[in-house]
Amino acid sequence: MDIGIDKIGFYAPHLYVDMNKLAVSREVEPEKFTIGIGQEKMAVAPITQDTVTLAANAALDILTEADKEKIDFVIFGTETGVDHSKSAGVYIHHLLGMNPWARTVEVKQACYGATAAIQMAKGHIALNPSSKVLVLGADIARYGLKTSGEATQGAGAIAMVISAEPKIMKLEEHSAYLTADVMDFWRPVYSEMALVDGKLSNEQYISFFSKIWGKYKEKSGLALQDFEAICYHLPYTKMGYKALKTVLDETAEETQERLLSNYKISTQYSRNIGNIYTGSLYLALLSLLEQKEDLAAGSRIGLFSYGSGAVGEFFTGILQPNYRNYLNTRQHTELFSARTEVSVSEYEQIFAETLPKDGTSIELDTDQDPAKICLAGMKDHMRQYIHKTK
Question: Residue limits of the Hydroxymethylglutaryl-coenzyme A synthase C-terminal domain (predicted)?
Fold first, then answer.
């Protein structure tokens, strides 16, 4: 039985800041942001968007009523959840009107969370072939204004339906994974901002890829020439390139050129969104699928997932016949074109807007947010969500 990605969608906030202008404001050469780390625009989440609403909006346009009945497991990978106890997925379960006879959980391991969710989903489908699983990956990356990590912030969400006989990508059997206790990136429960050792994190990312790639080759018997493309977790778009180039000498020049060309295509969406943590690998995959129109069915795509702290995994998928018919390319193109640029000062004001820390009731103006699902405020310590089309 084939199991894999049947549907995939994404959502990002309607606001962004231009990285050239941010660099000038921070008295940094713009090329450091646009070339050095490979970012052009950074999605900015208004106070009316959190990880719940981002994920709900990502799922909204890909789910049919039939999907909602078949989905009996909702798994939300995030490292910026909204509650220490209640799963963010439960809010989404309600907002989307999902089948009540469904499990719903939240999983966490930095940027690896959505990959863990996919592997859990595969096991569930293997035992329940007629069911479907909704996998979500949503985050808002915040390091603070004028910090070393500011240029690698972002916000967005990925939603995927995992099922038997998938229409987009069949996930193959072999995978390789690794865990090590590394303090390269973390966010203590008392901190709203992530802490990061940038140099160590870069080193560990590449080290994990090298070790896991070696293990994967042992388990699968495959080599670089067997791949049409390899997609990477992208905290910034140059990161995956640094890892890819460490193994290119294993293969012929023709394969090197193909992998490098397709890698560049896979980074287009992330260049204009920024880091979305748990969803960033799958945003890269979506960019490749939607932007490379001649990517043939039957192509093998490698997927490298890395979550600081640290857990990494390499696994693969095969594109299915007529997979392009099941992508939402037009909607995603419209999402990008409809976004509004904010100035650096406006971005700083938005960044400073936060919910009360003491549970004080507050109403938010959702009229300025074009998203169908928004955070409308807080009342009695409870977040208040609205679905504008219900």
Answer: 179-248, 255-349
